[in-house]
Amino acid sequence: MAMSGASDTDLIMHAEFMAFMADENSSEIMRGWVERQGWPPATVQMGGASLFSEMLEKSQPPKLVIVDFDGQGDPADLCMRLADLCGNNTKLIAVGSLNDIGLYRAIVATGVVDYLVKPLNNDLLDQALRLVHEKTKSKAAAAEEGEPHRSKLIFIIGARGGLGVTSFAVNLSWLLANEAKVNTALVDLDLQYGNAALALDLEPSRGLRDIVSSPTRVDSLMIASAMVNSGARLSVLSAEESVEEPVLMDAGALQAVMQEMRANFDYVIGEMPRHALSSQRRLIAEASAVLLITEQSLLGIRDTLRIKMALKSIDPTLPLLTVAARLAKDRAAHIDAATFEKNSQGKIDFTIPEDWKAALEAANAGNPLAAMTPNSAVVKAYRAIMDNLLGKKAEDKKSGGLFGKKNDKEKEKDKGKDDKGKKS
């Protein structure tokens, strides 16, 4: 059944609700329920998850979607991909014939609100709709309260290789833990070639691959046992898996890992390989901020712009700091800052000078630069970025840092509160 007699290729999704069913009996039940809710009958379509996937290529998803996953080989995997494509503003409810607790957990772990087992009925659908409303209200209430105890999740991404992204992540984490005195977790998401643990003279974690392979395997005790401590306030989660076979990271599992870590740490610093951008969209959408490390070159402009566009497609409001690296007195930038900023469509927020000698000594000692040369220009640059993340005001600026700036919605909310106070 297509809208207004149009073919599937001409179908435009309703802004509020759509249902994509795989069998006629479920479609009839859904149409009756939809009519009770006041939505048009054409919001119910035959075609299941396959049709919904096709529609996402040409139309914006509605606020609520019910999708029938019968006939799909791996419902949980498809749920994850559809949830990534829809983004955080769309609530998904899955429907299927298989009554299996393992499947239910795997589907819900991807971010889907609920999984309904056929046969459908009005009570079951009403209950699912109430769950959607409850989750929406709880999310709004948490945002209203500001979530004062929620930690910051910071992703660090290199626009290109060889820019010292690991060194940046390690030193920033070390400074947060040892100078700012906040409980910090460093997560190296390159399970095969990551060297965050090596930079701190630690043995790579054991068991991280098993944890991130499936949402059902995420357990607080397993995460705790896989972490390695570097001092009293810094914990590291990393791996050194074989390069002879592929290592898959389940998006739902990674989300669950990060949620668990945010409950136990003030700051979670994740070193994200740039090739993981496409597969970890929902995880990046949950970030407090992203630090993009780049270089002032033609290739740096190209890749910086590409990554910025990818991040904007995930969440246009996601806070982003651009950091230029590999700058030294004996090696000028290929492109000046003004030209870089013009062509990459954004300013360079910070610049990290290069000190090969000090970096080599730190690597050989298994210590971060911040511990060995705390007063060097490089560490001062790291410290300035840390202060920005902490919301500390720079001497020559009035801004309260990346998280100290209020967006338009927050300003409007404050204005409303002031107006209320004046009236009373």
Please give the structural blueprint.
Blueprint: E1 17-21, H1 24-37, E2 44-46, H2 48-56, E3 64-68, H3 75-86, E4 91-96, H4 101-109, E5 114-117, H5 122-145, E6 152-158, H6 165-178, E7 184-188, H7 196-199, H8 208-212, H9 220-226, E8 228-229, E9 234-237, H10 251-262, E10 267-271, H11 281-285, E11 289-294, H12 298-314, E12 320-327, H13 337-344, E13 350-353, H14 356-365, H15 369-372, H16 377-390, H17 408-423
Parallel strand pairs: 1-2, 1-3, 3-4, 4-5, 6-10, 6-11, 7-9, 7-10, 11-12, 12-13
Antiparallel strand pairs: 8-9
Helix pairs in contact: 3-4, 6-16, 12-13
| Strand order of the biggest β-sheet | 8-9-7-10-6-11-12-13
Number of helices: 17
Q: What class, by secondary structure content?
A: alpha/beta
Question: Would you identify the regions where 5 or more consecutive residues have pLDDT less than 50?
Answer: 1-9, 395-399, 405-413, 420-424
State the end-to-end distance.
55 Å
Rg result: 24 Å
The proportion of strand residues reads: 15-25%
Write the element-wise H/E pattern from the N-terminal end onward: EHEHEHEHEHEHEHHHEEHEHEHEHEHHHH
Average of the residue pLDDT scores: 81
In total, the number of strands is 13
Instruction: Assign a percent range to the helix content.
Output: 40-55%
Report on the biggest sheet.
8 strands, mixed
Overall 3D shape:
elongated
